[in-house]
Amino acid sequence: MREKKACTHCGQDWVKEYKRADTGQVFHMCPECESVWLDKNCIDDATELYLSEFMGSGDSVRDWESITLIE
Q: How many angstroms separate the Cα of 35 from the Cα of each of 1, 5, 23?
């Protein structure tokens, strides 16, 4: 079982592990505010970026269709 960690940015949801469909890159994200962290050991405000910046598409719907939740 994975340890749950609350989002340090919004505090509204758990940070979850995802994978990009295009590159296979694994990352961590809060599904509530879309804050992204590349290193699960560095989940804090200083390392955040947003899903739209991380994916680079500028299309929120496409971004969500291009990632998979790892359970």
A: 23, 13, 19
pLDDT digit of tens for each residue in the chain (71 aa)?
468 899 988 999 999 999 999 999 999 999 999 999 998 888 887 767 899 999 998 888 999 999 999 98
Write the CB contacts of 61 (distance below 8 Å, at least 6 apart in sequence).
none
Q: Look up tokens 């949801």; give the residue.
A: 13
* Alpha carbon distance 23, 19 (integer Å): 8
Cα separation of 6 and 63, whole Å?
22
- Count CB atoms within 10 A of the CB of residue 62: 11
User: CA 35, CA 20: separation in Å to the nearest integer?
Assistant: 15
Main-chain dihedrals φ then ψ at residue 61, nearest 5 degrees: -65, -45
